[in-house]
Amino acid sequence: MTDTRVVVVGAGPAGMLLSHLLDAAGIDNVVLERQSQAHVLGRIRAGVLEWGTVETLRAAGLGDRMDAEGHVHDTINIAWRGEEVLGINTHDLVGTRMMAYGQTRIQEDLFAAASDRGAEVIFEADDVALHDLDSDGPCVTYGGGERITCDFVAGCDGFHGVSRVSIPYGIRTEYEKVYPFGWLGILSETPPLSNLLYANHERGFALCSMRNPMLSRYYVQAPITDTVDDWSDDRFWTELFARLPVSQSEHIVTGPSIEKSLAPLRSYVCEPMRWGRLLLAGDAAHIVPPTGAKGLNLAVSDVRYLARAIATHYAGDDTYLDRYSSMALRRVWGSVRFSWWMTNLLHRFPDQTEFDQRAQEQELAYLASSVHAQRAMAEQYVGLPYE
Ligand SMILES: Cc1cc2nc3c(=O)[nH]c(=O)nc-3n(C[C@H](O)[C@H](O)[C@H](O)COP(=O)(O)OP(=O)(O)OC[C@H]3O[C@@H](n4cnc5c(N)ncnc54)[C@H](O)[C@@H]3O)c2cc1C
């Protein structure tokens, strides 16, 4: 049996950043991760950082490689009807830019920092179970009878983890929307377009994104019943090009995919994000469809609030701890609503009629004609302010 102040469940970006910030504040913690380190590093996920995320990572001393290798950009292009293209310049509209820097690299930076400070991260921790969360002395068990007593458990174990489901029904309220399609994504070692490009098309949504100057991420909306085997590289590129204006697709450099996956789209929020001594952060508490590029950014936002709440608790002030759930949820719902809006605006739904298609196109035309609408979109895309 060991003692610590905070057990962090999950070594994804939320858990590892929390451990980093707690260590910086001198608060003992242990991270328990179900998978191996190689498995966690092998996951290909997010890549677009809000500026608040960039500043949080810099302030934590995690910004050097991001600043050297990340790509700062300020324009989102949106295409529709296979011909129109609107450029939303977030810097001109709201004075803020974005950074393209892959989640895999953030995870590498977090593990390197953990190794440098000698953090206690236990990989391949099976059967993690949380106990006595509504008491002053919770504990966490794992493996063949290992037990850690602590003051707090930080549930950073993603959507399929054990933390959220440890909050009893009746206390936990869940809000959910599952979308009737998925995103087929490929990674290709080719130079990306210079700006993000979203497309609304009668054939379905498409997105051209970036990870670094020689790594592109492309997606097409696909039936969730498909498998990656249904999508050869040739079929993927043909479908992507069919959904984009030629003025954009003529700049795309194609190449073999080095990764291909089909991801479901879901909006989900669990309230509250705190129960007794359990505090949830990141995908453990909420999921957004990736349309608004918010999942990773929300994980960082939660952790920023949570690290402050725990640090001020040990300094004798529980104000932020008591307000953690409501403060985090305000930003969560802002991003959940924005991601839902972008998903509805840009995708082709199975029951969509020509009327619905025209209404979507008109909303895009309105966006193109109104600087006020563009500013509202830009403000939410680059991230709402922190409290
Ligand atoms: C395929 C895919 C593509 C995505 N693309 C984007 C994107 O383009 N833009 C964007 O913003 N977001 C994207 N996301 C979302 C983004 O990656 C997540 O929001 C982000 O990873 C959340 O970080 P987290 O630390 O909360 O959760 P996770 O990264 O899921 O980490 C949770 C960790 O907990 C561990 N764990 C789970 N259960 C247990 C347990 N019982 N015991 C111990 N450990 C456990 C897991 O192994 C994992 O390492 C994508 C997600 C997926 C799945």
Give a quick rundown of the structure.
With 387 residues, the protein is an alpha/beta fold.
What kind of sheet is the major sheet?
8 strands, mixed
Which percent band covers the strand fraction?
Answer: 25-35%
Q: Percent range for helical residues?
A: 25-40%
Count every beta strand, where a strand is a DSSP E run of 2 or more residues: 21
Structural class: alpha/beta
Task: List each distinct ligand once.
Answer: flavin-adenine dinucleotide
Ordered list of secondary-structure elements with their pairings:
Layout: E1 2-3, E2 6-9, H1 13-24, E3 29-32, H2 37-41, E4 48-49, H3 51-59, H4 64-69, E5 71-73, E6 75-80, E7 84-89, H5 90-94, E8 98-100, H6 103-117, E9 120-122, E10 129-131, E11 139-142, E12 146-149, E13 152-155, E14 173-188, E15 196-200, E16 206-212, E17 215-222, H7 233-242, H8 246-249, E18 257-271, E19 274-275, E20 278-280, E21 286-287, H9 295-314, H10 319-346, H11 354-369, H12 371-381
Parallel strand pairs: 1-12, 2-3, 2-13, 3-9, 6-15, 13-20
Antiparallel strand pairs: 4-8, 5-8, 6-7, 10-11, 11-12, 14-17, 14-18, 15-16, 16-17, 18-21, 19-20
The chain binds flavin-adenine dinucleotide.
